[in-house]
Design goal:
binds fe (ii) ion; alpha+beta; about 200 residues; 2 helices; 4-stranded antiparallel beta sheet; Jelly Rolls; single chain
Length: about 200
């Protein structure tokens, strides 16, 4: 069994190698359906290194915390491109239908995250299909693709984007209560999980 430091070093190397491959995939295939599916497959390969992502390293919020999930940053380029996060959830977590304005990939590691996909209609959205993301599976989206996520934790999933979440301030979501499209505020409060930057 690897030491804690050994796991951290091996994880850093494995993540850097995967993100290098993902940069190359995007350069070679572009932001295309084929390209994002190849990125998804590379992240499934990374998440298969289960010994590198022990759940204790990515704790979900405590039961008395008002938050039900934490995002841990595993990778992000200096220009904020190619960001990888681990989302640790407990209890119920869900989002309304939304786009990302960049490509997005979700890959399972522990637990399950139901992804519902939608088509944009004149008066909102219509669900087209679903995919239950669990260990060994994932989904890949182009910038305009619409999905919602539904988790009944505990769960740990990987989320990867072409641009860091703090920079995604034009993501649209459909509010079914108000019957209109709105903008998500960009996400803050991400926990640093890169070696040497952990706080
Ligand atoms: Fe999303």
């Amino acid at each position: 069994m690897m030491s804690t430091d050994g796991v951290s070093t091996a994880r850093t190397e494995a993540v850097e190698t995967a993100m290098g491959d993902i940069r190359r995939i995007e350069a070679d295939l572009g932001v295309t359906r084929t390209g994002v599916m190849a990125i998804r497959d590379r992240l499934i390969e990374l998440s298969g290194r289960r010994e590198l992502f022990p759940l204790d390293d990515f704790p979900a919020p405590a039961p008395d915390d008002s938050q039900t999930s934490f995002m841990y940053r595993l990778a992000q380029d200096a220009d904020d491109r190619f960001a990888l996060y681990a989302q640790a959830s407990r209890g119920h977590v869900e989002t309304p239908p939304h786009n990302h304005t960049t490509w997005a990939v979700v890959v399972g590691h522990a637990g399950a995250e139901l992804n519902k996909f939608y088509d944009r209609t004149d008066d909102g959205v219509a669900e087209s299909h679903q995919h239950l993301v669990e260990a060994g599976t994932g989904v890949a989206m182009l910038p305009d693709d619409l999905h919602s996520i539904h988790i009944d934790g505990p769960a740990l999933n990987f989320h990867c984007y072409g641009l860091a979440l703090e920079r995604l301030d034009r993501r649209e979501y459909y509010s079914s209560t108000d019957g209109e499209w709105k903008l998500f505020s960009s996400i803050s409060g991400i926990r640093e999980a890169r070696a040497g930057l952990r706080c």
